[in-house]
Write a structure and sequence with these properties.
This protein has 7 helices and 10 strands. With 289 residues, it is an alpha+beta fold. Helix 1 packs across helix 2, helix 2 packs across helix 3 and helix 3 crosses helix 4.
């Protein structure tokens, strides 16, 4: 059974702060869910805190997958490898080969062809920085507790990870993009997102479509005129039904809340539909990307 063990390396003789560990564990769970959603939007992941062991050097929080939730071993491995690589000391191109080889060694359920598929998909997820924000939150929370001197993720119960990120790397791994000038009140960026259609608006107007995404239920304006026109005229040959998933570039506009000094999302617009997948389409949503 595939496991994800969040391993906290502690300063000898010290204990981790309970609140820090709790918040870091929640952020870790969010990272797993985000990666799982991008790999397969139909998955409903339940993560369980199976056990915790505490000693003079480490605290080990074990979160395990239930095999019935993700019966496909390749899908499970893609998720596990992607999570592990976010918490390895190595950086750059070397980290992918190291991580995949460590996890797939002596696994009879995975063929050489499967391993190639896993490596390719994991590389795609890393390039798109899937789960970057919750992973940053993990490092941000752990950085608050000086008794935690490192963090890693292993896949064997009670095992110490072969690669542990030292505390010295926490600041660079939790950093956000440079903040805009204080007088800037709006900003925007574009994200490639997987959107599951809940409620379309089959008219040319400014009404928002409703989708399920990694951020939950969101409302998105459709600004891809070609996509909308093809849909309304029937040229796209897409029948409106449940299970429609769209890979799209979404422009996200934010406004600054002066009182709270935080940025809040004001508007989302689909500016380019890359691919549409229906419930009976067995193809890869990321094919050719």
């Amino acid at each position: 059974m595939d496991r994800l063990n969040l391993y906290l390396d502690l300063v000898p003789g010290e204990l981790a702060d309970l609140e820090v560990v709790a918040k870091a564990s929640l952020a870790f769970a969010n990272a797993v869910r985000e990666i799982a959603y991008i790999v397969d939007p139909s998955l409903s992941i339940k993560l369980e805190l199976e056990s915790g062991t505490e000693g003079s050097l480490s605290l080990n929080s074990v979160i395990r997958f239930i095999e019935k939730q993700i019966p496909d071993p390749v899908t499970r491995k893609i998720i596990v490898v992607s999570v592990v690589l976010w918490f390895m000391k190595e950086v750059g191109a070397a980290v992918l080969g190291v991580g995949v080889s460590l996890i797939l060694t002596n696994d009879p359920a995975i063929t050489d062809q499967d391993a190639e598929r896993i490596a390719e998909r994991v590389q795609q997820l890393l390039e798109r920085k899937v789960a970057k924000k919750p992973v940053q939150d993990v490092y941000r929370e752990l950085n608050k507790d000086k008794s935690i001197k490192g963090v890693g993720v292993s896949t064997g119960k009670g095992d110490r990870p072969r690669s542990i990120v030292p505390r010295e790397q926490f600041p660079e791994r939790m950093e956000d993009p440079e903040e805009p000038a204080d007088d800037q009140q709006t900003r925007s960026h574009t994200d490639r997102m997987v959107l599951t259609l809940i409620s379309p608006v089959l008219q040319k107007n400014d009404n928002k479509w409703r989708f399920l995404s990694k951020d939950g239920i969101i409302y998105v304006g459709i600004k891809d005129d070609e996509f909308l026109s093809d849909l309304l005229t029937g040229r796209s040959n897409i029948t409106m039904r449940s299970g429609i998933v769209i890979l799209a570039d979404v422009e996200i506009k934010e406004k600054k809340d002066a009182a709270k000094k935080v940025w809040v999302i004001a508007e989302r617009n689909l500016i380019k539909a890359i691919r549409v997948k229906t419930s009976d389409d067995a193809g890869d949503l990321f094919a050719g990307q």
